[in-house]
Design goal:
alpha/beta; Collagenase (Catalytic Domain); 5-stranded mixed β-sheet; two-stranded antiparallel sheet; 5 helices; 18% strand; metallopeptidase activity; Peptidase M10 metallopeptidase domain-containing protein; MetalloPept_cat_dom_sf
């Protein structure tokens, strides 16, 4: 009887110590509380980069500039994508000649990559700057509608949306393959973008 009583007291001590630990652990230990940015997933039809290394925008207004020498073809393509995203009412993206975020081109005909976005974050999962680059030899292999779709997709990455790869998502703008059927932002992409602009 006394052995069972001793185990019961030890169990109570463990529970009390655990509760004290929980109460004393500062919430700031958790860099990004889940209520601030829900990452979604393939089953939700969107994915958000709520943490490192790619990050999310965490604000509704941000800007970019063109790399010197960017041709009017890519400038117009970019401006079309920006207008498309701005028309959602979720973000306000604008050009700013001193922005740290840039848009330009590169040339790698041996790659199948059509474009990419590389991001710099602040350690809390928030983008501080990004670089969008179109691989022009590959991009020029597509018609204007697909080029616009790709540019819109890449600007989804600047917001903080991640690629989707499940074939059930081939009708979303953020589908990670050029075989996707969406040509613009869908309601799923909008839901994800609303999460991506949260602090």
């Amino acid at each position: 009887m006394s052995e069972a009583k001793g185990m019961d007291i030890n169990m109570k001590r463990i529970i009390v110590l655990f509760l004290i630990f929980l109460l004393l652990t500062p919430l700031s230990v958790f860099a990004h509380p889940s209520h601030e940015c829900f990452p979604g997933g393939e089953g939700f039809g969107y994915k958000v980069n709520c943490g490192e290394p790619f990050g999310h925008q965490s604000r509704t207004s941000y800007h970019y500039r063109f790399v010197s020498g960017t041709s009017s073809e890519w400038i117009n393509l970019t401006r079309n994508a920006v207008t498309h995203w701005n028309n959602t009412g979720i973000v306000s993206i604008s050009e700013n000649s001193i922005s740290n975020s840039t848009v330009g081109t590169y040339s790698d005909s041996s790659s199948s990559t059509v474009a990419y976005v590389a991001s710099v974050t602040n350690g809390s999962g928030h983008k501080t700057s990004w670089s969008l680059r179109y691989n022009f030899p590959v991009m020029t292999g597509y018609g204007l509608t697909k080029q616009r779709t790709i540019a819109r997709h890449e600007f989804g990455h600047t917001v903080g949306l991640a690629d989707l790869y499940d074939t059930s998502n081939n009708d979303k703008l953020m589908y990670g393959y050029t075989s996707g059927t969406a040509t613009g932002v869908t309601s799923y992409d909008i839901t994800g973008a609303k999460e991506a602009v949260k602090p």
